[in-house]
Each structure stands twice: as structure tokens, then as C-alpha cells.
Amino acid sequence: MATQVAAARPLRRGLRIGQQRALWAYLFLAVPLLFFAGIRILPAISSLYISVHEWNIVSPNRPYVGGANFQTLAADPRFARAAINTVRYVLVGIPAQMVLGLGLALLLQRIVRFRGLFRALYFMPFITPIVAASWVWQWMYSVHLGPLNKILQAVGLPAQGFLRDPGQALYAVAAMVVWQYLGFQVVIFLAGLEAIPRVYLEAAEVDGATGWRLFWRITLPLLNPTLVFSAVYSTIVYLQLFTQVLNMTFQDQGGPLASTLTLVLYVYQLGFQRFKMGEAAAATAILFVVILAITLLQMRILSKPVEY
Amino acid sequence: MKRIWTAIIVGAVVLALPAAGIGQPRVTITYWQYFFESKVKLVDQLIAQFEAQYPGVKVAHEHFPYDAYNQKVASAVPAGQGPDVINLFYGWVPLYVDSGYLQSLPLDAFPPVQIERDYVPMIRASKLDGKYWAIPTAVRSLAMFYNADLFRSAAVVRPPVTWEEFQAAAERMTARDDRGRITTMGFGVAPSGQDHHLLREVLFRQWGAAPYSADNRRVTYATAAGAEALRWYTELITKSKVGAIDFFPGAGGYRNAFMAGRAGMIVDGSFAIGAIRRGTRASWGVATLPGRTVGGAPSNFGSYWVHGLTARAQGPRREAAIQFLKFLVSEQTQRLWLDAVGELPAFKRLVDDPRLGADPVMGPFVSALPYARATFFVDEAAQRQVLVDAVNEVVLNNKPPRQALEESAAKEQKILDEFWAKRKRP
Questions:
Q1: Which value, to the nearest 10 degrees, does the dihedral of the CA atoms of residues B90, B91, B94, B95 take?
Q2: ipTM confidence score
Q3: Cβ–Cβ contact B422 with A under 8 A
């Protein structure tokens, strides 16, 4: 490469062809960067600015209030509820999604016929529009008219409240999100499994390792990069949960009794239904710090290199 | 190349023509509302009439989808854009007044004494600091929609007059499968639909608890009487089981259930007439909301959309905007509005029209206007949540109604305090 560049004839403006190529590359890279800065970074900074001001979005005045918005949130039971719920979504949803996803991927890896078909079927919920899927699930959960209670009663079990029961609603929503992301998870794990060189498994088998031992000692450690990616990605998905909750509890959003309320949904309610933009921005800032901290923590704890 | 230049020159001339004008000084004002087909069409007609009357004024009419309306208005304001005359829900007005977005209605063009003489009483919710800040063309109230076919098959001979009769009728119409799951509701309950208004302005009052103090600063429904009203309402769900919350999921599920013939009765606003007329297969009727006793004091919840004058309207634009506002709320417009949009007129003398009162669908809504009250909301979303939560605490957590109501009242009082603390005492 270096010799090629050296051999290239100098162009107008004294740029060598390699330099000129690099310049073009930077130019093209700059466009998405500007876009990213304009619609991601700048609004993020402005939301930090808003979080220390009082602003009801209609008012031209935005008085500086320091940490008052954060204090209000600290004393707000709905905010606390939303924060606890969000953590519960993460703790329930991610393990369920990853265990099921890995199990299905391992099963799919063993079959040859119809593997593509199964993979496509599992992937389908992921490409189904979230709003439409949420509404269908809401009907399935319907206490009096839904098919789920019909099935439960047909096998002699009592009807459940599902989305109408404050103790079940969060899990009912989480189940829908797991269903939705399962196919994505399976595809990621399948790719991870394919990337593990056969020789390690064969060598271990020669040494007499079988079944679970093989899985715990060889497959799982070598799958680590995929696990880290999945964990980080799903954590962000669950921390930002909004659309599914809003649409599955449309009449009493985040209800009943705030049992399904998430941080992002509460931010929306504060900002766009109650016009408390300062508080909404403060809640966003808190969420930002939490997501950043969890992501860094996960990368540190989960991503230990595995060498064989 | 030559063709391109020709095109540019022609384009420039065409664009410049209206700007150059025909020599007459014109002032252009802008009017904003949300999109509702019949309203948008009517306002277009009204603007044509207005511009014919006032040749110097041009009105630009802009409308936005309902769901995005508030956000659109709110985001336009800090950007220094927006209309001179704006259509807002009455419950948002305090926020817009506080932020300095609206100017109060000029006393000479809209004297408060005259407003209170001409208009139905509910519009006093738009009076703040002794001034009116916005004014409606039309108003809405609540009534009971009933499925006449279900009435017949359950041998309910006439619409209930008392809540006791209402409950009995609901019980007779409720149908369940062999497992006890409801297949048809006697009463399509909807705490987050219109039922929180029903509780606030109808049931609390009829059971003997005024929901708020006269100056709208204190929440006063958490009394023994208020708790009894809440108990009666929640027992429709827990005890007699004539209705289920979210029976049909989704926005307006109770109304959809009614239109599908799965609810015998619902409480809904006059704004629902159009949808119910189009979507209901069964024969249906409308009746005045029942009372606690025969001949007892009736009550109802009223609401309305108002036209306000924004702070942007200054100088000649302000003069034009005031003329347009007067035109929008005139008696003639109110008549047209009733015919074209189906919303009830806001003038007492139009409401008193016996032909309107005798209309089988409009009548029950119209007859409620003289006593309907519009709740003075300072944060409608949060105040609705408070009462929806009170119902759910009783229905789902078996909390005693009194306790649920006291907790909700405390939360709502905080919302009111926050609003009033920011306002200087008049």
C-alpha cells in the first residue's frame, strides 16, 4: 500500500491519491457525524440544560431552579414506582429472554432440516410492528373476552386478571417483550455458536467431556462476547421500555395503579401530558446516568477474555 | 438554459403577484385548531363569510391532528411562531394563561357581565383573576346512551330515572357465560373515560359532597358522603358485577363495547353522538343522567373548547383577531355549528329553543346545560389519574372507599397547591 501511494503521481493541489481518498472518506464520515451530533448529542445536552430549569413548554420563561427538579422527583412516589418497575422489567425480562434464546439456539443448532424455517418463525415477532402486536396481546389478556382465560378455564384453572391485576400486569407486559425479542436473541446466539471452532468441542470430547460439562466448560465461555453483547443490548431495551406498556395499558397508561409504569413512560407523561419539561428532563438525565453506569459495569464484569 | 430562465422568471412573477397585492392594505391573521373534519370544513366556510364582511382581513386557517395538537402548539410557541386566535380545551387554559401565552379578552368587546348573561354557566371555568381569557362557540355535556334492544329483551320499560333503577336495569341486562365471565355489560364502566367526570361532578354532588371549594383551591370530596358515592360506583364492578374495566381494551373501549352491542348503557359526552350514530347497529337512545332520588337536584359535567387571543396578536392584527373572535362566537355561528358539527350552542337563548330540547338525541344533553359544571382543572391528566387510582384501589386492592378517597384527595390537593402557589393572590 505504502509503495503504491509513493508511486502515485501528485495531483492538483498537491494531494497524493491516497490522501485524497482519505479526505473523501472523512468527508463522507462527517455527514453522519454531523447528523448524529445534531439529532443526538445536541438534544441530550439541551435536555441536561432543561433539567435544571423550570419550564412548562408553553412559557417563554425558563427560570433556573438548580436541583429543584431532582428534589421533586426524589419525593415523587410515582417516579420511585417507575424506577422500581423498570428494574423489575430488567431483572425479569433479560434472564428469561437470554435463557430461552440460548436454549432455542442450542436446539436449532442440532437440527439440519427446517432450521431456516424455524429461525424465520422465531424472528417474525421481532419484525412485527410493536403497536399492532401490543394491541393483539392486550386482547389475548382481556379478562372477560380473551382467549388466555378461556384456555385456563378449559383446563380447570381459575381465570386471571393479567393486565388488570397489579401483581401480574408487569409480568404480562414483560412476557410480550420477551416474545418479541426472542427471535432476535436466537439469531444472535446461533451466530455466536457457529463461530465456536469445532476443534475445541472435538478435543474436549476426545478427553472424555460430554453433555453439560461440554456446555459449561467450552460452549458458554467461548460464547462470552455474544453474551455480553446480548446483555448490554437487552438491558438498554428494557430500560427504555415504552411503546409496549403505553399500548397495552392504553386507557390507564402505566396502570393499573402504576404497576406497569416505566421511567420512559413517566418521562413522557411528565413532559407531554403534564408539561413539566424540567422534571421530565431531570428524569431523563437520571435514566441516562443509570444506563451509562449499568453498561460500563456489564462490560467490565462480563467481558473477561477467554483463551484456549 | 433559456427555458430554465423563463421558468424561473414566470415562477417569480406568479409568487410575487399576491404579495404585491391589488393596492389594498391587508392584514393576515392565523387561526389554529385540531383536525375534526366537520369543524375544519365549517371554519373554512366561516372564514370565507368573514373575509367577505371584512375585505381588509385575511384569515389563514391551520389545523393539526388531535393527538399532536397540544405538543404542536407548545413547540411552536417557544419558536416564536403560532396563531393569533387559537382553539384550546378549556382545561388547558390556566396553563396557557400562566405562561403568558394568552391575552385576556378585551373588556369593551367582551364585557364579563354580558358573557355571564348570555352564556351557559359552565363557561365560568374560563374566568381567572376576574377576567375572561377565552370563549367558546359550543359546549358539551354528559348523558346516558342506552341500547334499546337490550332494554327490550331485559324487560326494562324505560330509561332509569334514579341510580337505584339504573343499577337494577344494569343487573338485568348483564349477561355472563357459564364460567361467570361477562359477555354483555349492563353498564360499560370507564373510570378513565367519562366516569371520573361522572364521579366528580355528578355522583359526589348528588350523594352530598361538593368536589371542590367555591374558589377551586381545596379538594373537598373526601367525606363520608363522597366515600358512599365511590362505594356505590365501585360496587357496580365488584359486587353486582354489571361492568368490567377495560372490558374492551383500548381508547374508548367502553364506547366500542356499546356500539358492538356488548354494553347496555354507557355515560358519554355529546361529542360521542357522531361515532355512536355511525357505528351502532342496535337501536339506541339517549336519556338524562339519573339522579339520587326522583326529583332530586340534577347535576352534570360540562366541557368545551374555547377560542383565545394569543399574545402574538398585536396592533392591526389584534383588531382583526378580535373581530374574527366575535364572529366565531356569534349567535349565527353557533347555529351553524350545531347543524354542521353537532355541538351544543353556548348561548342560553339558543339552548332554550324548545325544538332543540325536544330532539330525542340532543334533548337530554341540552337540558343538562343550565346546571352542568365544568371542573376547574389545573392539570387534567394528573387529576384524572388521581380518581382513576381511587377506583382501582377499591376495586383491585379492596381498600375502603373512604381511605382510597382520602389518599386521592391528598394527592389532588398537592396538584392544586402547586398551581395556586405560583399565582399571585388576586
A1: -120
A2: 0.86
A3: no
